[in-house]
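Is this the right way to post structure tokens for a design question? Let me know if I should format differently. Anyway, here goes:
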């Protein structure tokens, strides 16, 4: 069973309810038909019922197994507005604003997760990453003990003998534009945990830079080297090294030359990028040039699972991210 098959099988066992705020979006509707048919999750589609049914009919897909909820007509609407007001009043939100915000599909769906009416949320086929995850950061917040939500991509590179038979986790390619050393360290630890719990991998973490062991001097390099120190203090059993260049991290012969004493050089399967520019560009290059499958991004450190799609996502991507969200909800 490959990673995707195993993810879908775990989701079938978990039987979680996933809410999709982009209820009229064609790929979301096609994905819903598959998710329900294959019993991957129970689906709540958010939006106007007539519009959703008309869009599904036009596409020739059946979403009859999904629940459809229109925010303002929902039996939960007033409860969610009141709860949202309580959560955000210190931030200047009054009842009128709360009502307007919870009428928005993504805020409504995020409140449904917060209040336990759904186990997880997937959005982003039409919304930007910011529009998908900002409500979650404001409402659902981090898990206890976690300061910063970050993300990881599972990258599956065909015909590749590096990483774990071509499988890697890349973090953070989607959330934090310019993480501090502390945030980088937290991302590394969370990504290693995701590698274990989600992919059954033995994580070997490389904190990437344009420098290996001080071969270049720059404040950007210092940021990564400090993050490595923090990871070692916080998670002493984790196999981690850096700052390290990507070739030394992944290619055994280069690792032997540049850092022969490293515990992970040439074997890294978890790659932590120093900032969002490098992470986002890096994952897209590998996805397009190496024809890798990029599954995610999955948010980590958030109290309940919320996941973002790329606006270029396929129907299969949505099915996979819904399956992953269901698995996260079960963990
Ligand atoms: N972890 C936890 N909480 C956070 C985080 C974080 N990483 N970032 C922001 N927050 C919280 C803040 O504390 C704040 O909470 P509060 O309102 O209760 O005080 C709330 O979220 C909003 O904070 P802002 O600073 O106003 O949020 P910002 O405008 O910076 O938006 C966001 C946060 C959306 C994550 C922003 O940093 C962003 O747009 N990141 C880049 C996303 C992106 O475009 N990624 C690339 C595309 S993804 C792809 O290609 C697959």
């Amino acid at each position: 069973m490959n990673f995707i098959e195993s993810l879908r099988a775990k989701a079938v066992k978990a039987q979680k309810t996933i809410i999709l705020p982009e209820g009229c979006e064609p790929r979301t509707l096609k994905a819903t038909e598959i998710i329900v048919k294959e019993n991957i999750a129970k689906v709540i589609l958010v939006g106007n019922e007539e519009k959703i049914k008309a869009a599904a009919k036009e596409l020739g897909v059946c979403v009859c197994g999904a629940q459809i909820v229109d925010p303002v007509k929902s039996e939960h609407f007033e409860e969610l507005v009141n709860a949202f007001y309580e959560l955000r009043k210190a931030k200047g939100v009054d009842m009128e604003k709360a009502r307007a915000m919870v009428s928005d599909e993504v805020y409504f769906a995020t409140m449904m997760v917060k209040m336990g009416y759904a186990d997880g949320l997937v959005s982003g086929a039409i919304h930007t990453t910011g529009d998908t995850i900002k409500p979650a950061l404001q409402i659902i917040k981090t898990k206890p003990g976690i300061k910063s939500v970050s993300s990881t991509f599972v990258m599956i590179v065909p015909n590749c003998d590096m990483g774990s038979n071509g499988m890697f986790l890349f973090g953070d390619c989607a959330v934090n534009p310019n993480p501090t050393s502390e945030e980088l360290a937290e991302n590394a630890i969370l990504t290693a945990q995701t590698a274990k719990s989600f992919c059954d991998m033995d994580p070997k973490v490389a904190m990437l830079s344009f420098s290996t062991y001080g071969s270049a001097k720059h404040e950007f390099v210092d940021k990564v080297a400090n993050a490595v120190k923090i990871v070692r203090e916080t998670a002493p059993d984790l196999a981690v090294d850096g700052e390290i260049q990507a070739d030394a991290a992944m290619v055994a012969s280069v690792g032997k030359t540049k850092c022969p004493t490293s515990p992970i050089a040439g074997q890294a399967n978890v790659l932590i990028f120093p900032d969002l520019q490098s992470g986002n560009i890096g994952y897209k290059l590998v996805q397009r040039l190496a024809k890798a499958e990029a599954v995610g991004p999955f948010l980590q450190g958030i109290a309940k699972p919320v996941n973002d799609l790329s606006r270029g996502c396929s129907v299969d991507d949505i099915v996979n991210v819904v399956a992953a969200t269901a698995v996260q909800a079960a963990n």
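Format looks fine. Someone answered above. Worth noting: Residues 91, 129-130, 133-134, 137-138, 142, 148-149, 174-177, 280, 297, 310 surround acetyl coenzyme *A (CB under 6 Å). The two ends are 20 Å apart (CA to CA).
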